Amino acid sequence: MKLEWLDRFRQYLTQEKNLSSHTIKSYTSDIKDFLGFLSFKEKGLKEVGYPFVREYLASLQRRGLAKSTLARRVSSLREFFHYLYLKGYLSSFLLINLRGPKLGKKIPSFMEEDEIEKLLGAVEGEDFFHCRDKAALELLYATGMRVAELVGLNISSLDFGAETVKVKGKRDKERIIPVGRCAIKALARYLQLREEKAKPGVKAVFLNRFGERLSDRALRGKLNKYLKLVNIHKVSGPHSLRHSFATHLLNRGADIRSVQELLGHERLSTTQVYTHLSIKRLKEVYQKAHPRA
User: Fold this and answer.
1) Is 228 inside a domain boundary?
2) Active site residue 73
3) Residues 188, 143 share a domain
4) Phi, psi angle pair for 166, to nearest 5°
5) For residue range 220-264, what is the model confidence (pLDDT) as tens digits?
6) Burial of 92 by CB count in 10 Å (0-12 exposed, 13-18 middle, 19+ buried)?
7) CB of 177 closer than 8 Å to CB of 263
8) Of the candidates 293, 249, 246, which has an alpha carbon nearest to the alpha carbon of residue 274?
9) 146, 168, 194, 213: which is the annotated catalytic residue?
């Protein structure tokens, strides 16, 4: 019965909440772990209360889980028990006041402009795979899109005439992002080779070696390979390109509202973390340039 609720919860997150595949995977994995703990303690869902949840969270702490992971587990539990309440299985929202550990604001890691040039210049080759990787990395940096958004792109998402790309973000919200000339050039070259690789009916822009949609895991692996190749170790994964995109725009004078729109952030406060990076750079310039600094 418990696993049936897990399957129904997954459907709810997909069909009603429209969450990203990455979030759905994380939430269902968290709840599966909780249900395992519930079975081990021989408890039913209707028997769960704050003392039991605190016992569960304490067991996670003993496993050495990071604060950020614990915070997500709490979010998963709140979402799951709210779902059980909405569907009438529980008569009340048992964990309405459940709160996770407080997390400090983490300033995202990013690459300097010369490091971006070094990284993108390292993708050399005229075969399908090198052209695909080059186009993918150029597009990530040109648009600041999330990796899930990039691998989710279809051919119809691209508008070469307007030099834009239509992106479906979190909760299926669409936004249109301008694409720079370097990314346009890399995309045009890759798409010529893509036609020979794509299986019939496949609409994805970025393909794997089987002619099917490239996974975000594969793309993460590719980027980390190139980062290692050019000896850049301070960042990892495609999100570093997103962070670099936002930081470089702000450093060059872009207003924060425009950056928020480009990134697809619902709240301005999410984008404001990048202003700390921009202010840090301004302080460095000030210290070097002002005669009485």
Assistant:
1) yes
2) no
3) yes
4) -95, 125
5) 999 999 999 999 988 877 888 999 999 999 888 888 899 999 998
6) exposed
7) no
8) 246
9) 146
Whether residue 274 lies in the annotated active site: yes
- To the query of whether residue 239 is one of the catalytic residues in this protein, the response is yes
**What pLDDT is attached to residue 289?**
80
Q: Which two tokens stand for residue 260?
A: 């928020």
Q: Which of 73, 78, 242, 243 is catalytic?
A: 242
Start-to-end C-alpha separation, the chain: 67
Q: Which domain holds residue 270?
A: 113-287
**CA dihedral of residues 89, 93, 95, 99 (deg, nearest 10):** 140
Tell me the whole-structure pTM to 2 decimals: 0.70
What domain count does the chain have? 2
Structure tokens, 234: 């301070």
Of the candidates 23, 20, 24, which has an alpha carbon nearest to the alpha carbon of residue 11? 24
Q: Is 170 a catalytic residue?
A: yes
| One domain for residues 139 and 265 | yes
Token code pair at residue 214: 């490239």
82 in the same domain as 7: yes
Whether residue 249 lies inside any domain: the answer is yes
- Clarify whether residues 24 and 68 are in a common domain: yes
Domain shared by 165 and 200, yes or no: yes
Q: Are residues 117 and 255 in the same domain?
A: yes
CATH number at residue 252: 1.10.443.10
Distance separating alpha carbons of residues 276 and 236, to the nearest angstrom: 20
> Tell me: the pLDDT tens digits for 79-96?
999 999 998 888 888 787
The H or E element that residue 175 is part of is strand 174-178
Structural contact between residues 219 and 147, judged by C-beta atoms closer than 8 angstroms: yes
Cα 126–chain centre separation: 29
Question: Domain check: are 163 and 264 in the same one?
Answer: yes
| Residue 106 is assigned to a structural domain of this protein | no
Based on the residue annotation, tell me whether 265 is a catalytic residue of this protein.
yes
